[in-house]
Every structure is written in C-alpha cells, then in structure tokens.
Amino acid sequence: MDADDLLTIPLFANVNGEVREKAATRLNEVNVVLGTPLARQGDFAYHFFVVRDGLAAVTVDDKHVDTLGPGATFGEIGVLERGKRTANVVAITPMRLLTMTVWDFNDLAESSPEFAAHAKTMAQERLSRD
C-alpha cells in the first residue's frame, strides 16, 4: 500500500504525509466473496475497514441504512466510540478491503491528534445519520 493511494480516501485525504505513511504500513488488503459478513451489530470492534472495490450493505436492527462503495470507510464508530459494532455490514458483491486492527487504529489516533479528530468527526456524523 502506497501512502499516496490514501489521498482518495476521505479519512486520510486531509492528514499529513507522515500520518498517511504510518497508516499505509498498518493497512492490510483482503478479498472477500459475496455474502461475507464484515461486521455484526453488537460484536466487539476488532477492525476498521476501507472499501477499495465492491459494495456492502449496512443494516441497523434489520433496517437497511446505507450501501458502501469504493473509498467508504466503516468500523470507526466501534473502534473509537463504543467498542462494539453499531451496525451489520455484509458484502453484496465480491470486495477488496483494507483493514486495520483496533490497536493499530488507536495507536495512529494517539500519535496524530489531527487523524483522531477527523475520525471522531466522521464517526459522529455517521451516528447522527443512523
């Protein structure tokens, strides 16, 4: 993963190059098949995700609330705010994702107040929509 690739992802677009470099070393690429559950409401949040390719459906209490595509992120609410998943996310196409563990995400947030503030703002905006 190249740090410049992260410029297209809103969470990383406005942080400095050093933060993007650090994030790039902590993100892992995974491929998932159609129907793969990516997050289950109420489960502990172990990972943050970035959608590179494909689509995922988001439901809360069995109600469809969003469809996520390339560039979208999810998991930041559970990682930052609550420790538990606030929604179900399921791959509705084959997908390519970037993942970061909760520990790496929190380490990045602790070392970069700029990243932490932006991530918290994104999580709060998502919570206010749901």
UniProtKB/TrEMBL annotation:
Gene3D superfamilies: Jelly Rolls (2.60.120.10). It is found in: Membrane. It is a multi-pass membrane protein. InterPro entries: CNG_cation_channel (IPR050866), cNMP-bd_CS (IPR018488), cNMP-bd_dom (IPR000595), cNMP-bd_dom_sf (IPR018490), RmlC-like_jellyroll (IPR014710). CDD domains: CAP_ED. It holds the Pfam family cNMP_binding. It comes from the Bacteria. SUPFAM superfamilies: cAMP-binding domain-like. Transmembrane segments: none annotated. Residues 11-108 form the Cyclic nucleotide-binding domain. This is Cyclic nucleotide-binding domain-containing protein. It comes from Nocardioides bigeumensis.
